[in-house]
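Re: the 416-residue chain
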Amino acid sequence: MTAVREVLELALGELPEEELDFLLDIAAVRTYPAGTVICHEGEREHTFYIIVQGEVAFTKRMGEGEQFLGVKTRGEFFGEFGVLDRAPRAANVLALTDCTLIEIHEDTLDAILTRNPSATRAILRGITRSVRDTDRLTIAELQLKNTELARTLENLKAAQAELLRRERMKRDLEIAAAVHQSILPTAFPQIPGYEFASIARPAREVGGDLYDVVDLGQNQVGIVMADASGKSVQAAIYMAVVRALFLSQTSFWASPAETAHRIHNLLMRVATGPVDMFVTAFYGKLDTFSGELCYVRAGHDRPLHFHAADGQVTLLDAPGRFLGLLPDLVVQEQIVTLQPGDCLVCYSDGVTDAVQSGNGETMYGLDRLVQTVAQNGQASAKELVNAVVKDIDAFRNGAELPDDLTLLVVRRLPGA
């Protein structure tokens, strides 16, 4: 059972203990002898597989023969395309050795992804790797069929295209960086009894995170934290669209759930292009008189609530699914109250996913973030932001950020 737990964490990332226990109780663990065809191309299944032990090979019918696509082993998974798209299997899967597999039903996987952004990111990283590997094999196969003269000519053309692409990319990055910088607020509303502070540090030339504090009138303030899938130019442009939708759809009379559904539906209508994009988001409406915060969490990392009265930190964990990709959005409103001296800490996954130099498997993690907030929760909003960033930088010790690092702190002043 220990091996199964380790593989679940390796494949799906950092999950709460209760989620791991839930998966251990409900998932099936089966063994397939070498030579067994586990999945058949074209057949509809409802199972997501994680490899505990052994190796599997992937092949696909191409013309009159079969194309070898690759091999996967311990800690890797397959079947995610068919489960997420509710589509037939895209390839045959063959057990090269005796294999032990964890089998998770699609309804169970959907529930896990809805509650845990880290699992969603792990699945998306696996999909990206599979697509990249398939692309490499396809290109290699095409090159083998060319004559030496044709390959030389194509290489010359590719070199010329690469020079042009790099020049265009450089310019695109400059434009996208300006676009992303323009959507982040340069100042926050002056709200009596409250203070706000933030930081946005992109992992690449261009970031894909968004935060905002919107004065809605009627003693209401909108708190926004969002993270677009993908990186660079596409994410920056997509996030510019998301911010425009938030600004157009937020109002003092619309509930957070209503706002999330409207933005989701608009994103579903405007989504175009070959790559599916989505956004995780936290949106809350804060009553600045009472301190009551009504919020929804659309697949985003759980914000922290520092309680000044006892120094405890709790998580805002209302269930919800990301915006803009799958139909039938599910979000649930919850309410908390910021008492005088309390803080709300919103963050992107670049905070908890920061890794140590020389040890890329060790992440900063939610527990350390909670501890840092608890130790510095009595400080000003700006001082709290600086304390978290300082601790992350000390932990990384020079390692590159795997994702954008974004923080937004809302603090109700003592006596307010």
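The first strand starts at residue 28 and ends at 32.
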